[in-house]
Amino acid sequence: MNIKKNFRFILPVGALLLAAVAWAGSPQILLSPGSGPSTASFASINKVFTGDWQQYGQLFTTWQGGLFNRIFLLVLTIVPTVFLLHYIIIGAKSFSHAGTPIKFFGILTRFLHWLAALSFSLLVITGLMVVFGKFLGGGALIMSGRSVHLIAAIVFCLSAAGLFLIWLKDMLPMPHDILWLFIMGGYLSKKKKPIPAGKFNAGQKIWFWLATIGGGVMAWSGYNLYSFAAPTDQLRQMAILHNFLAAGLVGFFIIHLYMSLFAIKGSLASMITGYKSPEEVEILHSRYKI
Ligand code: HEM
């Protein structure tokens, strides 16, 4: 873990982390209106968002009433379908395991990654439960999902902040990333040709920045929605921002799952053991200096 190299980044992010912990410590967050698992409290939250609808209320009501559901449904159907087609037509890339395996992910990185993976997965599931709450009958089920959402958000913020510190330098954009984007990382061909990428390719970097910085914006807007710590119209804007960013994050999360579980044979093992095969590094990370 190259903490020495990233020291000047540690202080500000460390401060952020402390702020997140302080936030997490504020009990009021759990006492926000509607904390009880009852349809009445669910209705009270809705009333705040849809009442006085002249301002963002009208926009929010229209979107909450249907557009958000449709956007999530589109993401949950189109993204997996595209990658299912990729898997059928192009298939997975596999690499020989000859030679000395290369250390790629340290133990702290893997621990923080799986903590982020678990908490984020819970965030996605409980977030979708809230979006489709009406179809799931609302009430206690959705309200307990909301509480799980809160706790998972705190765990995700802490683990993602740690990953941000560790991977920051390797995730900075490089000129060869443009080339990678042009050839879509070589994933539209079955050939195994050296790909212009360092430790992480342009696609992995996009996911990193979306998950960490995007995750931070989700936490901030989510905290305001939970604690009602803003005027109604701002809360509506936050709800709209939270929903749209969530749709983008869910889409990229599905791509991350496909890339790490299906598109590259041995990728999952690398996040468990920490090692990658020399051929995989040579081909997929040809600019990476070991
Ligand atoms: C159940 C969910 C997840 C699984 C199965 C998973 C799996 C993996 C695997 C196997 C790798 C290694 C990829 C490689 O180098 O070959 C990886 C890398 C990575 N994961 Fe995850 N991950 C999950 C969730 C997450 C979440 C929620 C985040 C958000 C912070 C995340 C962020 C990353 C990043 C930034 C990398 C390095 C770049 C990349 O490969 O995209 N992962 N993940």
Q: Could you explain how this protein is built, in words?
A:
There is one protein chain. With 290 residues, the chain is mainly α. It has two domains: 2-47, no CATH class; 52-284, Transmembrane di-heme cytochromes, Chain C (Fumarate Reductase Cytochrome B subunit, Up-down Bundle). It is 68% helix and 1% strand. Helix 1 packs antiparallel against helix 5 (139-167) and helix 3 runs parallel beside helix 8 (232-263). Protoporphyrin IX containing FE binds at residues 113, 116-117, 120-121, 160, 163, 200, 204, 207-208, 211, 256-257, 260-261, 264, 267-268, 270-271. Protoporphyrin IX containing FE is lined by residues 113, 116-117, 120-121, 160, 163, 200, 204, 207-208, 211, 256-257, 260-261, 264, 267-268, 270-271.
